């Protein structure tokens, strides 16, 4: 199991981190205008959370806020389908280390490698471990579901799926159909998009 953190953020710390992260997301990640999403659906806005998860100020906030959102779950590793999940998982790994604990991260390739060890999942082995699948945001849930299937195939127990933002476009329902607990930090109302 994951090492227990030696320091725990106070509710005030978490509240301040969450408020600052929301402010940064609204300022830097929301793009208005007609876009086609990876699901093929069209939308009047795009939430480009890579502008946040790869931002020097926001990434540490992502790690702390996401860890707080799943603090009641027990898991050893965090990861998901590359590319959206990678910086989220890394932020959480670093946040846990800063709290004095340990959390491993893993990356699920979109396809298995044709060379080297030909692994679909990179990082420490997740076989026999409890894992959290993450993503920055999800429209239909396809990427986290693919990552969850790959993690299960590798012998892991998937405890939940967690994202920074929920678009309210069907992902939650798909996760429920698959029996996966789903957590997110912000919804479209908080982001000012509903």
Layout of strands and helices, then pairs:
Layout: H1 11-28, E1 30-36, E2 42-47, H2 50-53, H3 58-69, E3 77-81, H4 85-98, E4 104-108, E5 121-122, E6 130-138, H5 142-153, E7 157-166, H6 171-177, E8 182-187
Parallel strand pairs: 3-4, 3-6, 6-7, 7-8
Antiparallel strand pairs: 1-2, 4-5
Helix pairs in contact: 1-3, 3-4
Provide the descriptors you would attach to this structure in a database record.
194 residues; globular; six-stranded mixed beta sheet; alpha/beta; two-stranded antiparallel ribbon; 6 helices; 35% helix
Verbal overview:
- The structure is a single chain.
- With 194 residues, the protein is an alpha/beta fold.
- The protein contains six helices and eight strands.
- The chain has a six-stranded mixed beta sheet, sandwiched between helices.
- Helix 3 packs across helix 4.
- The radius of gyration is 16 Å and the shape is globular.
- The mean pLDDT is 93.
State the strand order across the main sheet: 5-4-3-6-7-8
**Strand percentage:** 25-35%
Distance between the termini: 39 Å
**Cα-atom Rg, whole angstroms?**
16 Å
Arithmetic mean pLDDT:
93
In short:
With 194 residues, the protein is of the alpha/beta class. Helices cover 35% and strands 26% of the residues.
């Amino acid at each position: 199991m994951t090492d227990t953190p030696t320091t725990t953020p106070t509710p005030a710390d978490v509240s301040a981190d969450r408020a600052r992260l929301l402010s940064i997301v609204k300022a830097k990640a929301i793009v208005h205008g007609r876009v086609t999403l990876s699901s093929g659906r069209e939308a009047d806005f795009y939430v480009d959370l890579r502008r946040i998860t790869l931002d020097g100020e926001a990434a540490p906030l992502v790690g702390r806020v996401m860890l707080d959102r799943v603090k009641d779950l027990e898991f050893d590793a965090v990861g998901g389908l590359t590319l959206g999940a990678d910086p989220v998982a890394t932020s959480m790994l670093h946040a846990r280390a800063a709290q004095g604990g340990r959390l491993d991260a893993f990356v699920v390739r979109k396809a298995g490698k044709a060379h080297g060890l030909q692994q679909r999942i990179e990082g420490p082995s997740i076989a026999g471990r409890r894992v959290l699948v993450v993503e920055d945001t999800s429209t239909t849930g396809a990427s986290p579901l693919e990552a969850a299937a790959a993690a299960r195939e590798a012998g892991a127990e998937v405890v939940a799926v967690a994202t920074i933002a929920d678009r309210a476009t069907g992902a939650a329902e798909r996760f429920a159909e698959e029996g996966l607990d789903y957590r997110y930090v912000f919804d479209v109302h908080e982001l000012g998009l509903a």
